[in-house]
DNA sequence: TTGCTTGTATTGGTTTATTGATACAAGAGG
DNA sequence: CCTCTTGTATCAATAAACCAATACAAGCAA
């Protein structure tokens, strides 16, 4: 389920992209699962079809999703978690929760450390 | 250091807000530290002063920052990851780099672990 | 093949964000 | 007191995002 917030600092397309990303990464949208057609999702969210298409295209450019034509847009298989020290990851997540941070906050912190 | 990406789906104001948020929560901007004046940061980023002011105002509305007038805009104490967790963050980033992962990959793994 | 669905692209009009400039009041410092 | 800095507010003009409608080609199914 995707919900658009008019008061959100980001626009509709970015909100759709971010929420679908979260649905995929949380496993709620499994690999090979099919996203709703652009027209359908656009109708549900009271948004133009081009706006949903824009979000889908960005999802594809980041590799989260692939798209045939009449085949629709489908979820790509996920990342291999074994490549990382999962214990450290879990420690970070636990500490962040304790500090009252959101997922987006933690991802921002990762980005800061990444570019440091 | 704040960097604006013209290709980013979000606009300048939102990018500034998100990056300063991350800098604060990662401890790189300590409590009571002073943010650059709106005109200065605007000049550095080649952006209008009102755009930076808009970002500052949203930061204040979320409580991350306080603002006097000529006192400037300063970081509020509180929402920071503890030093231990920050070390874990660095370990994760280092391991990810070694494994050849991208920043987006790591952020995705964080998201998966977050919803696990 | 035919028919239908889907993603993509285009067009024109509307809305929102950003710009650049200006002005103002609160506070700091001399 | 005065001066300077800072955040805030406003304005008209430009840029970007979004909308609504349409058309098209790729692929699936019958």
TrEMBL record, chains A, B:
<feature type="domain" description="HTH gntR-type">
    <location>
        <begin position="10"/>
        <end position="78"/>
    </location>
</feature>
<dbReference type="InterPro" id="IPR036388">
    <property type="entry name" value="WH-like_DNA-bd_sf"/>
</dbReference>
<dbReference type="Pfam" id="PF00392">
    <property type="entry name" value="GntR"/>
</dbReference>
<keyword id="KW-0805">Transcription regulation</keyword>
<protein>
    <submittedName>
        <fullName>GntR family transcriptional regulator</fullName>
    </submittedName>
</protein>
<dbReference type="InterPro" id="IPR000524">
    <property type="entry name" value="Tscrpt_reg_HTH_GntR"/>
</dbReference>
<keyword id="KW-0804">Transcription</keyword>
<keyword id="KW-0238">DNA-binding</keyword>
<dbReference type="InterPro" id="IPR036390">
    <property type="entry name" value="WH_DNA-bd_sf"/>
</dbReference>
């Amino acid at each position: 389920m995707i919900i658009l917030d008019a008061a959100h600092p980001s626009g509709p397309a970015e909100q759709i992209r971010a929420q679908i990303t979260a649905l995929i990464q949380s496993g709620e949208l499994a690999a090979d699962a099919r996203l709703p057609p652009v027209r359908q999702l656009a109708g549900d969210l009271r948004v133009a079809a081009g706006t949903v298409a824009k979000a889908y295209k960005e999802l594809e450019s980041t590799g989260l999703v692939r798209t045939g034509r009449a085949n629709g847009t489908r979820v790509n298989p996920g990342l291999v978690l074994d490549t990382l020290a999962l214990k450290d990851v879990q420690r970070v997540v636990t500490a962040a929760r304790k500090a009252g941070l959101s997922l987006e906050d933690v991802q921002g912190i990762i980005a800061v450390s990444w570019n440091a």
